[in-house]
Amino acid sequence: MTRVEIPEDSLFGLANLSYGVFSAPGASPRAGVRVADSVVDLTVVDPVFATSSLNPFMAQGHARWVEVRERILDLVAGEIPDAAVHPVDSVTMHMPFEVADYVDFYASEHHASNLGRLFRPDSEPLMPNWKHLPVGYHGRAGTVVPSGTGIVRPTGQRKGEDVPTFGESRRLDIEAEVGFVVGTPSPLGSAVGVDDFDERVFGVVLVNDWSARDIQAWEYVPLGPFLGKSFATSISPWVVPLLALEAARVATPPQDPEPLPYLREKNPWGLDLSMEIAWNGQVVSRPPYREMYWSPAQMLAHMTVNGASSRTGDLFASGTVSGPDKDQRGAFIELTWGGKEPVAVNGEPRTFLEDGDEVTISATAPGPSGTRIGFGEVTGRILPAR
Amino acid sequence: MTRVEIPEDSLFGLANLSYGVFSAPGASPRAGVRVADSVVDLTVVDPVFATSSLNPFMAQGHARWVEVRERILDLVAGEIPDAAVHPVDSVTMHMPFEVADYVDFYASEHHASNLGRLFRPDSEPLMPNWKHLPVGYHGRAGTVVPSGTGIVRPTGQRKGEDVPTFGESRRLDIEAEVGFVVGTPSPLGSAVGVDDFDERVFGVVLVNDWSARDIQAWEYVPLGPFLGKSFATSISPWVVPLLALEAARVATPPQDPEPLPYLREKNPWGLDLSMEIAWNGQVVSRPPYREMYWSPAQMLAHMTVNGASSRTGDLFASGTVSGPDKDQRGAFIELTWGGKEPVAVNGEPRTFLEDGDEVTISATAPGPSGTRIGFGEVTGRILPAR
């Protein structure tokens, strides 16, 4: 039997207990919990974890999430069978869940305003609908990939003068986002109430919504982004349970006009996540999630108000997290103002992504009693176009 | 043993052999083939059909589709075990496949021009990108439902004067479309060539992309349609194999400007489907699929040109099929010109859908030797808002 030592300042202490899917050398993928620098095999807790996806467990619902979290806490605070403990560096992390539908919102007022100015310089930056509803759209679930997956530079039709040009994207960008994973499904023809968020949503991941701006700019009117986004969306391997984020809850910024009743939260689900974006190892931005105008509870309520069902494994992301300051912007098109104001990365002036570049997004949030909860990171390196 | 009698004018003769998933009373769902007015249980042909989804068979690839089609032809042309034959009226039809990603295109020039005039009366009806690429977007895979599912009228934020109004949609509409189902997956980072369409796509279904125009009009700028579409998309229960549609192939209309090389087909995949839309039993429109500007092979090539993977069960739909004439329009917003020109349905002037209305879309296509191939129908009735 083994005891996992947890340093006092660990981001993966007993208040966190994030879930992932891992494989040890020679073993099949299964679910595990992150404790300090170890992964603990959860098949010793419950047979539902003996699969390559968290979906079966997430589908069991909120009461089970609470109960199993207690059992995991008991396990990892005590003696654990040796064979169930692996150094995190010795295992391979996989997609933690099967993505059902993927929706991407646009919930940062700073990001939406910046993008409006860049994409539509002759119009009001925010559309008339923006403060009435969380604007969102469906993305490609099949190209959500785990952190570490190489990102092949996409090819396609790019915005030109009168006619498009064709070739590899020259304006390849990131979007630093936070994603929410549905556990308990909701049936067709019913809406999820804005205060039922924590009954439905199992946990949180970090998202990099890679974006080819030249492809997007040409294609997106009138039906929205498509190939400029669909080549890859990366997520972090550890799903932080919503149950670990009580101390991170904050009010959203003031919402004016007052939202319609179905979007009014009794206890807001703003979240005080501190995010960092590292470009080839250098931190270039620190987006504050607490600045997001719409909360994830409002996103889920809106997404289902028309009676759309939701499924276990649905992933909905916040949209780019950008704060009011320049060094808080979550996309390089904003950070470099359309490529016109390069930023220094390891001494070089940089705008969009070059082949070989690596981007890593990480985050932490307040935990109980002054501790911090880690989200790990989502990382990816740009590979040359094929 | 039984022999299935096939009337000479049957739309489900030996040249068709469409696949579906059915359950006989008291039996579990499994795959079957439609022959005249019977369903033949395909578990007598191959164990891959002993599941509630065509995905495992579709994933086996083109050579297997050809081989199994020959074996099915041998079976149904001869004597069949009694227990494997069911009258089609005695069985329940289910979703024929599990939808991976759902993409909706916008490939009819007539429809796109009409909608442009209706939604953006002050601009050019066609966007500058429209003749350069098949415009499309991702829809909600989780709300694709089988024909016959009741459609609950959606509720949401509707376009108002300055601020939105909230309530049930008053401009509920249909979109008559044709959907294409991917069988053989393609990996991340590679593109499907425009001439590889028939290696990849297994078959064809009819699609009704129900649309709430008042919700859509308020939400869709700048990220595209979302809740105005995501409450339900209905598909027909029979997947017509692409192998049955050789005689239906036609050239697409002339494409000017010439498409970029990745969109140039050697042998075009235009399709001569004749569609019918019945509103409460009365045929109100006959959209001609052969008028579609972009072919489904061009759609798949475009959808993957950026390196996006495709999966078994991906469904991509054509967008509304509308011809040049008024009685060939595939959506009621076009047919009634935004509700200003009602059509007579059983003697009543009608614009958008009322509770209790039923819409049925059906289609046929040329088969070999003067026969016709049936697609069956996709039908749905409007239920009151909850």
From TrEMBL, chains A, B:
Gene Ontology MF annotations: fumarylacetoacetase activity; metal ion binding
Domain Fumarylacetoacetase N-terminal: 15-96
GO biological process: homogentisate catabolic process; L-phenylalanine catabolic process; L-tyrosine catabolic process
Entry binding sites for substrate: Y106, R120, Q216, Y220, T320
Catalytic site: H111 (proton acceptor)
Binding, Ca(2+): D104, E175, E177, D209
Enzyme Commission numbers on file: 3.7.1.2
Superkingdom of origin: Bacteria
Residues reported to bind Mg(2+): D209, K229, T233
InterPro entries membership: Fumarylacetoacetase, Fumarylacetoacetase-like_C, Fumarylacetoacetase_C_sf, Fumarylacetoacetase_N, Fumarylacetoacetase_N_sf
Keywords noted in UniProt: Calcium, Hydrolase, Magnesium, Metal-binding, Phenylalanine catabolism, Tyrosine catabolism
Cofactor: Mg(2+); Ca(2+)
Root EC class: hydrolase
Segments forming domain Fumarylacetoacetase-like C-terminal: 103-377
Pathway the protein acts in: Amino-acid degradation; L-phenylalanine degradation; acetoacetate and fumarate from L-phenylalanine: step 6/6
Record protein name field: fumarylacetoacetase
Native species: Actinomadura livida
